[in-house]
Amino acid sequence: MAQALLRGRRTSGFRGLARLLATSTMLGCVVMGAPGLPVAQAQDAVRAQTVRFAIPAQPLGTAMDAFIRTTGWQIGYAPDLARTVTTRAVNGTMAPAEALQTMLSGSRIRVRITGASSAALVDASTAAGSGTDETGATLLERVAVEGNQTSGMAATSSSAGTKTNVPVREVPQSVSVVTRKELDQRGATDLNDAVAYTPGVRMVDYTSNQGLPLLYMRGFFAESQRSYYRDGLRNGYNAYDTTVEPYGLEQISVLKGPASGLYGDALPGGLIDMRTKRPTEEAFREVQLEYGSFNEKQAAVDFGGPLTEDGTILYRFTGLKRDADTQVDHSPNDALYLAPALTFTPDDATHLTLLAQYQDLTRSGAEQSLPIANSVYSTGVTIPRDFYMGAPGLSDWNSKSTSIGYEFEHEFDNGWTLRNNLRYTHSKLDFTSAFIWTWPIAVVDDHYLDIGVQSRPRTSDSVVADVNLSGEVETGPLTHALLFGINYGYSNLRETRTNSTNANHLDIYNPDYDFAYTFGSAWSDSKELVSQYGLYAQDQVKWENWILTLNGRYDWADMTSYQYVGGTSKTDQDAHAFTGRVGLGYSFDNGVVPYASYSTSFEPVSGTDFGGNPFKPTTGTQYEVGVKYQPEGWNGLLSLAWYDLTQQNVTTSDPNNSGYSVQQGEVRSRGLELEAKGEIADGWSFVASYAYTDAEVTKDNANSSGISQVGTQMKAVPYNTASLWLNYAFETSRLEGLSVGAGLRRVGSSYTAMDTGTGQQVKIPGYTLLDAAISYDFGKANPDWKGLSLALSGTNLTDERYFTPGFYSNSVLDGKRRTVKATLAYRW
């Protein structure tokens, strides 16, 4: 027989009584359709006294608990809905029935008013219209949801921390979530902007930035795609083959600290998981036109809705075309982005979503590394900010990548759920880089830079997949949320590299690019094959208010490298590791959850020592304690975390064999992170963060010059960063529809990489950046203009010049100049 849940005002012992009543009273009244209250009484409930709501988006069960605490209502629903439905945020003063309807808008759930302060939640397939049902109870209309409607500023649910949809406060590790609303509110144009207000993360504002952005998390530098995930799967293996278009995303989750216990090989500092836009049950359309700094012109569309009358097939199409320059001459930022998606739902238990993406991207191929003596610490000769260190028409980065995959989910009758994700990606990269020819890099004769080029095309194919099974079991007083899975990854990458045999002697003040480069023979022609497998398990144990999280995973990684220059040589390297996480938290009734955890990670390392032995993976271990607070009656989340993170098996100079390395190094990062975001009453919302990061080398062998890095600060990692964004949406009749926001970002000073000849590090000054945004919804003033909006946004409005330590010990990268854009959008 079917079961249902009845939830109501919390009293002593009521939860157990409610579960008992679920198989009797609600079995007949809700599921079997027993007679409800008279229509007149139900209509009175719909017009009930208004209540102030501030309930964030979250799983149905916890959302109903919050609704009940706020209103005192009783809510009945079938148990399978609690496992599969996530509600939307609701904020403001309204009738309880209206709030309940808003929370469930866009889902397959309908609200059936059964009394003056009670309701039942039913599946839409059994409730096709509004008015009254066969029981006489009021059945509320379904609410249409625009495709870009967001879950508010503070998303309190994310699958990144557990691969299951649990509240962020229950994850015993630091997780930051950037919602669609926050991206739109701040006008984020790239991933750097998107996570700019997230603590513990430093994205390098690098104009050329071929491929994915340069990233530091908790002091550790991401040198591959191990830190980037899309829709729960690793984004790929080729760090140059793609980039991120924020317009195509619904949400960004930042999981900080070791995550190998669920994801396999990963950066010790954490990873970023980006969720792309999905098909919607309600039809919507959006068209955007954008114009901004550096002659940026962009058009975008976002359509979605049902393709069939019964809603079993849904679609989404997101597209974008951009033609833009940048702050550096001859450096384009052109893009074509196409992302179609289809969802097929043959029944309530089965969902299949097909996801495809195509990107055609063109950017500069110039490295743009600036000598410190001619930029941040210039005493006379300063390289102009728009000077291009390349060859126009030759040194470009053009990437064409295509990916197609699916997400499959099926819930069995016993409540267990099978999920399977898979994605295939093919990319073709035409890349000719440009770089300063002389070493160390420097301006020659106070006027010139010698610029050489390197042709480095590459193609790659990759497959990533994940299959897992999840469900709940009870052992006495303990409830176990179990997860078992297997993960697979494969990559085939081919690349050649050919240097020019000459360099162009460019005048930095009056460059002459009319110069012909000649190329010699390829000095590298390589192919890399990677095959990875991982088995993992998770148990989230709940007993009363205690939450114990256990993760374990074992990985096997096979890497084969071929070098075809001078004959064929082959190098095989295998890596395997066990990683995991143990976390314990206690959930107080007032929303406070203190926790403590221990987690580990690993990263394969290529190369061999003097004896020809392959290097072992580096390993990471972290201790973290913190507290998360989701206040009752407020759509927000506060978090504080302290961590001690150490990476072992780091390569360092071999003291007995010059020019070789051994794995005797160690890096330690300790820090504190605070984050608060949410929506305050009367239209106010905010995002605030602070991070203290002390990342230093703790073990190292002296090099041939007798210099050791022990005690040096990790490159480009500031001790202190802080940010604050504040936004106000006017609610008065005259100014309703107007929204204004402003933010400050403070990045403290950091250091360059140590000069291996002198042992010196150069301090790079910190900086403070001002951002702002303003938008207006014309439909608030005139119903004939419903759906039309205009937004203006800008970053670094004071046009402060700032720098980040570069790739070399005596270099820096120029930061982003003032950027302003206007976006005209129409939604219907």
Short description:
By secondary structure, the chain is mostly beta strands. The protein is 8% helix and 50% strand. The strands form 8 sheets. It has a 24-stranded antiparallel β-sheet that branches.
CATH class of the largest domain: Mainly Beta
Structural class by sheet pairing and helices: mainly beta
Mean pLDDT: 87
N/C terminus separation: 43 Å
Number of strands: 47
**Number of helices in the DSSP assignment:** 9
Taking the sheet with the most strands, its summary is: 24 strands, antiparallel
CATH superfamily (homologous) name of the largest domain: TonB-dependent receptor, beta-barrel domain
Given the C-alpha coordinates, what overall shape results?
globular
State the helicity in percent bands.
Answer: under 10%
Strand content: over 45%
CATH topology of the largest domain: Maltoporin, Chain A
Assign the CATH architecture of the largest domain. Answer: Beta Barrel
Integer tally of domains: 3
Please state the CA-atom Rg, rounded to the nearest Å.
28 Å
Low-confidence runs of at least 5 consecutive residues:
9-48, 127-132, 141-150
Q: What features would you describe in this structure?
A:
The protein is mainly beta and 828 residues long. The chain has three domains: 5-139, Phage tail protein beta-alpha-beta fold (3-Layer(bab) Sandwich); 157-276, TonB-dependent receptor, plug domain (Ferric Hydroxamate Uptake Protein, Chain A, domain 1); 284-466 and 486-827, TonB-dependent receptor, beta-barrel domain (Maltoporin, Chain A, Beta Barrel). It is 8% helix and 50% strand. It contains nine helices and 47 strands. The strands form eight sheets. The protein has a 24-stranded antiparallel beta sheet that branches. A hairpin with a 2-residue loop joins strand 5 (109-115) and strand 6 (118-123). The longest helix has 12 residues, at 60-71.
